[in-house]
Amino acid sequence: MKKALIVLIAITLIFTAFATVGNEESIVICASSEQFRNDALQEQLNERFPDKNIIVMYMSTGKAAAKVLAEGDGTEIDILVGLETGYMNKITECLADISGMSDIPYVDGLTPADNGHRWITWEKQAGAIIVNRDILDKYGLEAPETYEDLLKPEYKGLIAMPDPKSSGTGYFFYKSWVNTMGTEGALEYVDKLHENLKQFTESGSGPIKLLKQGEVAIGLALTFQAISEINDGQPFEVIFPETGSPYSLTGTAMIDGREKNSDIVEVYEFIINEFLVYDKENFSPENIYEGQKNNIENYPEGIVYADMTGIQEIKEKERLLELWKY
User: Which residue segment(s) compose the domain that 271 sits in?
Assistant: First the structure.
């Protein structure tokens, strides 16, 4: 508890320093997406609002939620982007009513009304088994086809997956196993898988980095990141699990009270109606709204998704992470 408090104080000091540089009216956006996506957001905001001091800062989804929950509307954060929806549900009372702000024609179940008009669906993050063909060939190995295949002894030390305690990607793999195997079955599976893992990575992009470096042959990772690397010439292959592609949802919101600030509202409406479309078309293309376009070459079509019942329930996540021993 003491360590967590020290971390939260440090984060607060960092935010305060940035938010007061040169302009007391800074608009602070806490974004939990990959840095290249955050950079694109910052660039477009600077172009659209040259008269506003807008700061896009990265913070992991769990830490961002903890900060907002602890500080309420007194937080330096004005806007949240890419926060896991389970955490959104946990901090709902700290969020502004965004009724009528979104023009996006979401698919059923993902509209602002479905979220209590407190947050807007930002993206659907989905994963798969990603392999580096060159490394498999180096060891004379065939690619795995199922989760069960990952337990084969020939893959020992050649697999990486994100840690569910620090990564939403890692958690949705874990939750999909719970949904298909039951809690005990999933924990038994993880114990066996652990024997073959080179490491649990802190972030969801960790396995992709290890695959690029040739340190592992197999990674449990995000599909869109793998396709991006394939388009850049990496010898990767995407293998969808037999139970379907696991996924989670993230959202975007304003902190309560910020709806009274016209500058923040103007920036937020740009993010949810314009940059969201750009981000989905060019970075994270899993479908969330009607007529959504995909500019990413070679992206798989007709993806079958896993049963992710309960993925947005924060109490279920806390229960499962309490059982996670690695």
Answer: 2-124+248-282
